[in-house]
Every structure is written in C-alpha cells, then in structure tokens.
Design brief:
Length: about 375
C-alpha cells in the first residue's frame, strides 16, 4: 500500500534518526594502505594512514573511501549558544576504512524502498536538529540505497580473520550519519557490512541485514575481493538503530548471528543483547521500560540509559546519541563485540561485576544487566 507523505513523515518521527555528525574514519595519504600483510607490512600500512581527518572535509563519495587513524567530527550547536565539540575519536590499531556503494552488479543488490524520497528533506527535518547537522546528513555523498557500505580495518594481517557485524540504519538514517561509530568499530578489528537502505524493517527491504551476511559469505569466497578469506563467519553480530533495531530483532533469529546490540529499540529472546537508549528518546520509551524489558528477557542481556544528552533545540536528542555523541558510545560497542564475538575477558569486565566499567556512573548513564548475563 502506498503511504501518504504525512503518514511516512509521522513514521519517520516515530522510528528514528537524524543528525549527521559526520563521516567515517576516512582520509588517506597518496598511497592506498596495503590491506593484507605480515607484521612489517602491517606496521608500514598503519604508518601510511592519515593521522587525523576532519569530517567537515569529507563531503564526497571519493573522500569517504580512504583511511585514517583519528577523526574530528563537526561541532553540534547547543541552545545555550555553545557547541558540543568538535571532538576527536582516536581509532583502533588497524585503522578504519570504508568501501562506499558496494555490491553493484551482484545478486545482492537490493530493491529501493518506495518510501526513500520522503527522507529528504521531510523525514530528516522532523527532528528539528541544527541546520549544520541536518545539512551534513542531507549531503548523501551519492549514496545508492540499493547497495552496501563496508567498514573494515584499513590494514589487515595475513594470519588474521575478522568478525562480521551486519548493520541496519534507522528510518531516514543515511549511512554516513553512523560512520563515526561504525568506522571506529572497524578500526578495532571488525568488518561491518551496512545496507544503505533507510527502511530496514519495511518491505521490500526488511531482509537487507541478512542479505548483507549472504554478501559477506560471497566476498569471503571471492579471490578478487580485498576481504577474500579475511572474514570469520563463525563470529557474526547484528546491530541497528531504531527501525534498524527492529530489523535486528528479526535478524537475530538467524543461526549465523551470535549476539546483538539494539540502539533505541528493545530486548531479545533470541541472542545475548545490549539494549541502549537515553533521556528524551522518542515514543514512550523510558528508563523503567528499558530495564524491565531486559530483566524479563530469556537471553543474557544488559541495558544502558544515557543521561546528559544534548540540548540542541531538537525534539529527540536521546534518540541520536550514537550519531551526535559517538565519543560516548564507541568504547562500550567495541567492548561488547570483543566479548561476545572474540571471548575477550578484559572486555567482559566492562559489563559484569560490581565494579564493572559501566557500573556506578549514574550521572552519565545508568546501567544494569539481567541475571543471565554472567
């Protein structure tokens, strides 16, 4: 059924997403980093990566496809006349890089949802974020909604394979708006495959997250791909934002998926999960409801509720923490995946124990876990 413009705009407000704080760990030197190498080659590759890039300068598709060690993202204007940032995020030991608009000419090209046109500008403007923020998101960098963006380590070692995370955007959440978070995760040794669709739980694009995993399997078997035999397909996670979190709640039924993160979107009875939200979220989501859903789940789960969300004049900044304040979320995201996919016991300490890394920080956020998370 064809939705009216008004209905889709209302739905965009109910589900998701805006705020483009920037773009990925991108920028590069003149020489493209070597994607796979022994120890000396790996060190040389890392040394060749641009030490600092500014998202304000990454405004084309070509500029998105490079590599960088650290990223400075745009300042967010606040209602008191000040700004949040600019803040620099230093990436992980592999550096981060993305491959923009991937999958053309393959069987994994997706349909384009008929609702996409409502996002520019109607769906994005619904959140009433500052003009500099929304304008950055509206610059789509020639995004092709039918394809994928791959966030990967810029430098990879010959003797290593890397876990895979399938990502789902929220409603009208263009991929580059999440690139600071996803690129930083990649720089710590993960490959994130993100469908470029912004209607990830709406037919006919409600299976793009699992199609991304099929695409990952094909890339791993393709000798012409930079990811040939570099993916650990026994270590797969799923995460998404808002409508994308609802998509993740469906995708985690797939036996390939080992764990999940729901950004502003709920709990799971299928796989271990992390449930993240915050003050001034959309809809009727509350701290108590977030806690209760996690405690009632039949899978190991944790919840986190952000305080100190931005006052921008927008109406739902608690829904946009991962986009506007990625410096607050990348460490817990990387730690969750290191624990759940790699079995990293140090990363586990961020989530369990009376003195866990997320515990006892109630001014910043409140955190808890159910009895199954051990």
């Amino acid at each position: 059924m064809v939705r009216s413009l008004l209905e889709v705009a209302r739905r965009a407000q109910s589900f998701l997403v805006v705020g483009a704080v920037g773009v990925l760990v991108a920028c590069s030197s003149d020489d493209e980093p070597n994607p796979g190498a022994g120890e000396e080659g790996f060190d040389a590759c890392v040394a060749s990566i641009e030490p600092l890039c500014k998202t304000s300068e990454l405004d084309t598709a070509a500029e998105m496809e490079a590599a960088c060690k650290a990223l400075e993202f745009i300042p967010i204007p606040l209602t008191d006349g000040s700004a949040y940032g600019p803040v620099t995020i230093t990436g992980g030991p592999y550096g981060g890089k993305n491959e923009w608009n991937e999958g053309s000419g393959t069987e994994f090209v997706n349909e384009v949802n008929a609702s996409e046109p409502v996002c520019l500008p109607t769906g994005i403007d619904t959140f009433m974020e500052p003009a500099s923020v929304t304008d950055d998101l509206k610059n789509t960098r020639d995004l092709d909604y039918s394809l994928y963006t791959i966030f990967r380590p810029a430098c990879m070692k010959d003797d290593e394979t890397y876990p895979v995370i399938t990502w789902a955007n929220g409603t009208c959440g263009l991929t580059h708006g999440y690139a600071l978070l996803l690129g930083t995760v990649a720089s710590h040794g993960f490959v994130v495959i993100a469908s470029n669709s912004t209607w990830t739980n709406t037919p006919p694009t409600n299976n793009v997250q699992l199609r991304a995993l099929d695409y990952a399997e094909a890339l791993n078997a393709d000798s012409s791909s930079v990811l040939y035999q570099k993916l650990d397909l026994d270590k797969i996670g799923a995460m998404g934002h808002s409508q994308g979190a609802a998509a993740t709640a469906n995708a985690d039924n797939d036996p390939r998926v080992k764990a999940a993160i729901y950004w502003n979107g709920g709990a799971s009875n299928e796989k271990p999960f992390l449930n993240v939200s915050g003050d001034r979220d959309i809809g009727e989501r509350t701290l108590d409801a977030t806690r209760s859903a996690t405690e009632a789940a039949t899978q190991p789960g944790a919840w986190l509720w952000f305080h100190q969300v931005l006052e921008t004049g927008g109406n739902a900044t608690g829904h946009l923490v991962l986009m506007e304040q990625p410096d607050r979320v990348w460490e817990l995201t990387v730690a969750w995946w290191k624990w759940q996919l790699n079995g990293d016991q140090e990363a586990k300490n961020m989530f369990v124990g009376d003195d866990c890394g997320l515990c006892n920080r109630d001014a910043e956020f409140e955190y808890g876990q159910n009895s199954l998370l051990r």
